[in-house]
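Second attempt. The first submission of Mos1 transposase HTH domain-containing protein had a stray character pasted in from the spreadsheet, which I only caught after the job came back as garbage. Lesson logged: always re-copy from the clean sequence file. Corrected sequence (187 aa) follows.
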Amino acid sequence: MLEMVYGESAMKRRTVYKWVDRFKEGRESVDDDARAGRSSTSRVDENIQRVYDLVKADRRITTRMITEKLGISNGSVQTILKEDLNMRKLCTKIFPKVLTDEQKQRRVDCCNDYIESAQDPNFLERVITGDESWIYEYDPETKRQSEEWKHSGSPRTKKARKSRSKSKPCSSFSSIFVELFIMNMFQ
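This time the job returned cleanly.
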């Protein structure tokens, strides 16, 4: 009859009889009894504090690294981080550029200069087209590498999409007016 009402999620007939017998014997709770065996030694206050200290020292530490340093299981480390310390791992929020107010104002000024220059009828004769590409001598950080442990409710860390390091610019120009540009440059 339970299977007709609850479908596949219903208890089997034998399980129902077993629980009826337990309640007749005086049981009042449906929680499991304590089992024999070794009690948990990983989730003690000492280990919780040690995990917290490691995370505080390096927010990008992985659970595997904590496991290796403390000698406790990976599952216990995850339980300590998520349940005891109420932490989660968040990716850094990436912005196209992180600009200062001065840099923003400089961009506005440059745009205004271009708008004023475009009013000149000879403006297009002074335009030199070109192409430029940058070759970076570093491997950009992946999204996974930027993850940090944060308390729930903590804001994400912000970073620029690319941070420049040593680079080598490669440029090539091509235009009808390049010859004039080169001649004017060397005069």
